[in-house]
Design a protein that fits this description.
This protein is mainly alpha-helical. It has six helices and four strands. It has a two-stranded antiparallel sheet. Strands 2-3 form a two-stranded antiparallel sheet. Strand 2 and strand 3 form a beta hairpin.
């Protein structure tokens, strides 16, 4: 794994620590067969800080592309574990799971932004990278 730019984390923390609400692109609604209006969310519009962090994860080879080699069950267990207790490999697996999962489940990253999981994982990743001198 290559060194991460500290500025990426500074921008990410500044955004996430303000309890952001992820905006959606053009929310939609329709009238169902019972004549009721049904609203649904569309694609999330992520802040530049989120895009930069995800790009950095790929560019610095921090994504664990083998994240599904043991199936989905170990990842489900990681989702409920406290990020502050995770070693680097687990943080990488969990972040990879969420980032890659966005491709198949639109809004997954929005959920972890809003429930604080991304902030917790990013803080732990920052702590571990700093300890291993992988920040510039």
């Amino acid at each position: 794994m290559e060194k991460f730019r500290k500025q990426i984390f500074d921008d990410l923390f500044a955004y996430l620590e303000n309890a952001p609400e992820v905006k959606r692109d053009n929310p939609q609604s329709y009238i169902n067969g019972e004549g009721k209006t049904v609203s649904f969310e569309t694609y999330p519009l992520y802040d530049k800080a989120i895009h930069s962090f995800i790009t950095e994860m790929y560019d610095k080879h921090a994504m664990r592309m083998d994240y599904l080699k043991n199936g989905i069950e170990p990842l489900k267990k990681l989702r409920v574990k406290q990020c502050a207790q995770m070693p680097l490999q687990e943080i990488q697996l969990l972040l990879t799971y969420y980032i890659r999962g966005e491709r198949f489940c639109t809004g997954l990253v929005a959920d972890i932004i809003q429930n604080g999981k991304l902030l917790d994982c990013a803080r732990r990743l920052y702590e571990l990278l700093n300890k291993d001198d992988l920040l510039v």
